[in-house]
Amino acid sequence: MKAAFIRQPGPPTNLIYDDLPTPEPRGSEVLVRVGAVCVNPIDTYIRSGAIKANLPLPFIVGCDLAGTVEKVGPEAKRFKPGDRVWGSNQGLAGRQGTFAEYAAVDEGWLYPTPANVSDESAAAAALVGITAHLGLTKAGLQAGETLFVHGGTGGVGSNVVQIAKAIGARVATVGGSDAKVADCKQLGADAAWNYKTDDVDARLKEFAPGGVDVWWETLREPDFDRSIALLAARGRFILMAGRDARPTFPVGPFYTKNCTLIGFAMFNATQDEQRRCSEDLNRWLSEGKLKPRIDRVLPLSEAAAAHQLQQENTLEKKGTLAGKIVLKP
Description:
Order of helices and strands: EEEHEEEEEHEHEHEHEHEHEHEHE
CATH topology of the largest domain: Quinone Oxidoreductase, Chain A, domain 1
Mean pLDDT: 95
Radius of gyration: 20 Å
């Protein structure tokens, strides 16, 4: 089978697109004929070596996939050949990744794909959708509450906007251009502003005079002085980025408003936790309430270029992506 893999961690140019043996499903694994995969920032961290991991070499990169079951292992019970499935959390904890024509995946990390949802959409919603769902569940977001998220057209941000609206919250967000602001509103945001030209703090105070109930932070270097001043009493602040960040934190203003700080990484969630997320995600995908934002679709052979593009936008803030990069074998 063709696959995108590394023989040692390093820059995107270390990614090789070549032949590897097709895996055989063992135990409760199923063999998936991959229809689409998606690029995530964590994929670039693992490929580069920024996240130290004991990788099986050669190592196939990638967390997300969607496709069709080709074969099942002797202990697999949930799926049969021909079933369409999607999933995430591959390429972690010693597991091979998904950037290949075939992937052997434990069935506990896979979920049925709704009939009216494409492989491209399912793959694009996988990690980011589960991440958004987990965070909003941990924050206990309720209908009628207000939420603010940075980057409402980004991979995670666009899912936060849509899922928060599906829950019944009032949502505000920002984008780096008037076009992205328009896209945020099309995704369902009640308010969206251009952070380069608008006085976002003033607009946010008008939108939520009593403060924001849930603040979802996607910036790698949070400005806590600013954001905590905009939080409501008993507000919840979600952190899911900024692995190396060491910002100043205003302890007094935070605890005297009875606020809560929530940090999480989706890959720490159990199979059961992620499966519960998948049930809501599948319903929202099928109903059209969740529409994954795909920036572009490329052939799997362009995995190195896709990693370079993702890295430039994640670390260098080039702003040339508005959504996910999907690759097709």
